[in-house]
Amino acid sequence: MKKQTIIITITALIPLIVMSCKKETDRENLMEADNPFINVSTLPYQAPDFSNIKNTDFATAIEEGIRQQFIEFEQIANNPDEPTFENTLVAIEKSGELLTRTMNVFGMLSSANTDTILQKLQEDVAPNLVALQDALFLNEKLFERSKSIYQKKDDLDLDKESARLLQYYYDKFIQAGANLTIEAKEKLKKINEEDALLSAKFYNQLLEGTKSSSLVFDSTEDLRGLSQSVIKQAAANASNAGYEGKWLIALQNTTQQPLLQNIENRETRRKLFEAEYGYEMPKQLTMEVKRFRHDHALDILEESTRRIKRIRPDSKIVCCVHATLGTYYVTENRGYDNWDKVGNSIACDVFSTTILSYSLPRSFFKSITQRTLDIAKKYGKGSQRWLMNYYQQPDDVSEIEEICKLYSEMGVESLFAWTYRGGYGTVLAAPNALEMWDALGRGYGAVLQR
Questions:
Q1: pTM above 0.70, yes or no
Q2: Which end of the chain is more exposed for a tag (fewer CB within 10 A), N or C?
Q3: How far apart, in whole angstroms, are the C-alpha atoms of residue 222 and residue 262?
Q4: Count of CA atoms in the C-beta half-sphere (13 A) of 209
Q5: Using CA atoms, how far apart are residues 221 and 8, in angstroms rounded to an integer?
Q6: What's the CA gap between 356 and 367, in Å, rounded?
Q7: Could you give all domains of the chain from N- to C-terminal order, each with its CATH number?
Q8: Which region holds residue 184: left if phi is over 0, alpha if psi is between -120 and 50, else beta?
Q9: Of residues 337, 334, 246, the one with CA closest to residue 282
Q10: How does pLDDT run across 66-94, given as a tens digit for each residue?
């Protein structure tokens, strides 16, 4: 059975139906005459004919596809016949053929071969696409029809595919907010709109940040360990970027840079590792984006906490926020600024903070620790402090023991250390990783004895 796809990363309700007769006629004429998406492709498997598709074709096709599917949803919702699997769920699945056909190609191109036209269109259509999503899942009539079918599911004798489709839509309606009050649905629509607009903008900023982030090297010795094909491509990348006679490695938006595992030059690995976590991306981070990210992150943590405690009610959830200002690669405070909001949340039972550099003055360690203790006490949480025990090490490893003692004497209830034993001998390990781990063990042991 065909699976209808609706893009949910972008949002908001903008009137699409009310327009002049002349504008309607003009658009239909344009679609019929020039737009390759108006008809099903005649290529094998209905593959898109990219030779006949221009970036300027998408906007009109998406607008018309949204308009058509919006009308189809209303027709299904207002069907006077008794709700059935066929006239409701199958009808929903079969709706939006033009939009699906268009978005399949648009999504693929905007992800793999985007340009400024497609990027702008992503932001422009975001409100309309999320409005369409809300028109389906926040439509009370459609939900009631789907729910009535779901309540009779045991008597319908559905095959496995159809039963799964019924369960999918019922769950999706519930998760999307179909049971909310009218007032709550309107509030949710506004949240969805903000989510969509910010997500579209953030995606494009992220892409721009990724494209502009790279490392340039002067010698192939810096790239020792890489294959000749990779080195050749790095030379071509440098030439295209205006660095003739050099080698350019572009950063990839992954958890780790894939080339780290092959590069033998430790200094090169260090530069690549720090570049991954140190560059500013996106280049612009508005207060609206920061606020949304903070709220969304806390929502995810709170939902995760609820789910964990349903399974293991006695679990103690530790939430760690970063004390990052002034640390070894951070020049701005990227941590969660509102510690009170985290401390007062159900997301954690233990409030924890971390530092990323042993080179900071002890007064900074003390002030962050005291602030951590104050927040934990204020909201009835446990307190915890983290130690960094990988990659970077203090000038004297005995400082690790001193910090453990400092935390203990100030009243911190538990300690946690970042260590990567599996990373020993790699860029993740400190130069004297074994000595650091031994020092940490001595520091822990002294705390336990006290």
A1: no
A2: C
A3: 12
A4: 18
A5: 47
A6: 15
A7: 21-197 (1.10.1370.40), 213-278 (no CATH), 291-449 (3.20.20.70)
A8: alpha
A9: 334
A10: 999 999 999 999 999 999 999 999 999 99
